[in-house]
Amino acid sequence: MISPNPKILILEDEKNLGQTLCEYLSKNWPQTYWANSLNKAESMFEQINPDVALIDLNLPDGYGLDVGEEWRRKKSDLIIFFLSAISDPEIRLKGLEIGGDDYITKPFKMAELTLRLKKTFAHKKFSQELPDELHLGDLKIFFNRYEVESATGEKISLNQKECALLQLLFQKRNHVISRNEIMDLIWGENEYPTPRIVDNYIVKLRKWIDTSN
């Protein structure tokens, strides 16, 4: 469950940006911490058990996507934002597919980052108000834990967008919803998702739901 005062861990090796991020976000969320190396961040991750991780991609001692994937395995409900100067759509897609909740291209405005975090927290809060456990045939969905259990007993971690999409489909059950509506409600007008990203999410969800039959 997301705390009213979430703990945010920033992994950014560029000193000026790291300090600026930490100081700015601390105005809204006092428990904000900054690590300038992967080694330091790994230690802080274990110490503070963060609710949110902001991860730079290009690090001197690691690669941000690998870090995010590892931390997602360690903590299934961790909110992960990737920060990168790389605008390649394929890398962005990879970041979302491995469990990232958002991918923000540098340079960005601090106010935009704050708004995106607040929007993600709102999605998280909404998920906490849904049933703790939802059954679709033999499929079990745990919104609060960001987790799906397949008919075979396999437990699958959800990222924020996957969970939000399942929530939306649950809300709109027995109704037709268009791809454009999904893009607007889940990604929002400032995130510019592609139809391919939406389709990939739907394909993944269908694979899980098919196991319930």
Q: Which band does the percent of strand residues land in?
A: 15-25%
Instruction: List low-pLDDT spans.
Output: none
**Biggest sheet, in brief?**
5 strands, parallel
Q: Output the strand order for the largest sheet.
A: 2-1-3-6-7
Q: Number of helical segments?
A: 8
Q: What sequence of helices (H) and strands (E) makes up the elements?
A: EHEHEEEHEHEHEEEEHHH
Q: What is the residue-averaged pLDDT?
A: 86
Give me the count of strands.
Answer: 11
Rg from Cα: 17 Å
Share in helix? 40-55%
Structure classification: alpha/beta
End-to-end distance, in Å? 31 Å
Describe the structure using short key phrases.
213 residues; 4-stranded antiparallel sheet; 11 strands; 8 helices; alpha/beta; 46% helix; globular; 5-stranded parallel sheet
Task: Give a structural overview.
With 213 residues, the chain is of the alpha/beta class. 46% of the residues lie in helices and 19% in strands. It has eight helices and eleven strands. It has helices at 15-26, 38-48, 64-74, 89-97, 110-128, 160-171, 179-187, 195-210, and strands at 8-11, 32-35, 52-56, 58-59, 62-63, 79-84, 102-105, 134-136, 139-142, 147-149, 155-157. It has a five-stranded parallel beta sheet, sandwiched between helices. A hairpin with a 5-residue loop joins strand 10 (147-149) and strand 11. Helix 5 packs across helix 6 and helix 6 (160-171) crosses helix 7 (179-187). The radius of gyration is 17 Å and the shape is globular. The mean pLDDT is 86.
